[in-house]
Amino acid sequence: MITKALTAVPDALEQPDRIYAIGDVHGHADRLQAVHALIRDDIADRPVADAFLVHLGDYIDRGPDSAGCLEQLAHGSPISGLRCFNLMGNHESMLLDALEQPAAARLWLHNGGDATLRSWGIDPESDPRRWRENIPPAHLAFLETLLPMVVAGVYLFVHAGVRPGIRLPKQSLNDLLWIREGFLDWNGRMLPDAPKLRIVHGHTPTPEPELRPNRLGIDTNAARGGKLTCAALRADSVYFLQA
């Protein structure tokens, strides 16, 4: 993988009345569409003055319709009137690496990139140097503008996690996209400069959402037959929508 540095931490957002966070989709466009519909219904049933939506990354690979997932997200918020923030996942990073450096293509293909290429009508055995020209420009533009994290109120949204004990501006993008060991088993406060932040993440699949005092994992293995999970968060509570 091409190592990338974290160049800036986005400005923190005020805590809204509700935040919807969606875990790893992995090419299941039908489930993504279904979860968006559940959010619309939830807002209709429980209106709030201020809410936004965060997708935690890994929109592509393994599932049958990565192109359909990107198409849902590439043209602005999929839910009218709801601000939307889209994070980078390690699978999007592997794809972008493969497009920059063909030698990196093997790692991406080994991790489900062949399914993504087929969803665009691209032969996975074709020359990686020709892939870019067959990817819809709107999909590429979306992938190239994904965020490393979002901080809002008492929550930090990130794809994989953080390195405990390291200040937020010093976190590496590699850890934000890939970390498991040292993060998942950490029981204390994560960030010395923001000790009250709870980390909301995907990346590591579990059968059900994993709610800990310092973190919330919501990758419930949609990639391999599990449900796609959305966490609906307030400053002091959480409930889940699943499809």
Kindly give the count of domains. Answer: 1
Radius of gyration: 17 Å
The SS-based structural class is alpha/beta
Question: What is the share of helical residues?
Answer: 25-40%
State the total count of DSSP E strands. Answer: 10
What is the CATH C-level name?
A: Alpha Beta
Flag low-confidence runs.
Answer: none
Sheet with most strands: 5 strands, mixed
N-to-C span: 32 Å
Helix count? 6
Could you explain how this protein is built, in words?
With 243 residues, the chain is of the alpha/beta class. It has six helices and ten strands, in the order βαβαβαααββαβββββ. Strand 1, helix 1 and strand 2 form a beta-alpha-beta unit. Helix 1 runs parallel beside helix 2 and helix 3 crosses helix 4.
Q: What attributes does this structure have?
A:
26% helix, alpha/beta, 10 strands, 17% strand, Purple Acid Phosphatase, chain A, domain 2, 6 helices, 5-stranded mixed beta sheet, 243 residues, globular
Secondary structure topology:
Elements: E1 18-22, H1 29-45, E2 51-55, H2 66-73, E3 83-86, H3 90-100, H4 105-119, H5 137-143, E4 150-152, E5 155-157, H6 173-178, E6 198-201, E7 210-211, E8 215-217, E9 229-234, E10 237-242
Parallel strand pairs: 1-2, 2-3, 5-6, 6-8
Antiparallel strand pairs: 1-9, 4-5, 7-8, 9-10
Helix pairs in contact: 1-2, 3-4
